[in-house]
Amino acid sequence: MTEKHQLQNNFSSLSQKNLELETELRKLSRPGSGMLFMSTELKSWSDSRQYCRDRGADLLIINTEEKQRLVSSLFKETVWIGLSDREQEGNMKWVDNSPLKQGFWESNEPNDAGGNEDCIELNPAKSVLNNWNDIPCTDKRKWICDN
C-alpha cells in the first residue's frame, strides 16, 4: 500500500512539474519569437499541423535560402514542413496560404507519384538545397513547428 501511495505522490509531483514547464515554454514561445520545435513522435501531416496549431504555432515555412540552410543543418531526421498542394494539385502553398516562390526540391520532385503525394517532407540527409520531396500526407513523419 505504501508503494502505491509513493507512486501516486511521484505522479502528482511530475504532473505539477510538467505543468510548470509547459507554462514556461508558452512564455518563451510567444508568436513572433521564431522558436523552432521538432517533435519526438511520428504523425501524419494534418495531425502534425494540428499539434503545432494547438500550441499557437504552425508547421515550418521556409521562404529563404538562409532558412533552408539553417533548418537543414539543425535537424538530422526527415520532417514535415508547412508546404502542400492539397487544395489544388501543382499549386504549392504554405500553411499561411502564401504561394511557394522558391523550392529546394530533390531531383525530379515534386512528382505526385501515384497521384497521391500532396505534402512536403524535408530530408536533411540529402543535399542542402535539394532535399524536399512530396509524399502522401498520411505517411508518418516527425515535424517542425515554428511560431
UniProtKB/TrEMBL annotation:
Gene Ontology MF terms in the entry: carbohydrate binding
CDD domains (UniProt xref): CLECT_DC-SIGN_like
Domain of life where this protein originates: Eukaryota
Protein keywords: Disulfide bond, Lectin
Membrane-spanning segments: none
Domain C-type lectin: 37-146
InterPro entries, alphabetized: C-type_lectin-like, C-type_lectin-like/link_sf, C-type_lectin/snaclec_domain, C-type_lectin_CS, CD209-like_CTLD, CTDL_fold
Keyword Amino-acid biosynthesis: no
Protein name, as recorded: Si:ch73-343l4.8
Organism: Cyprinus carpio
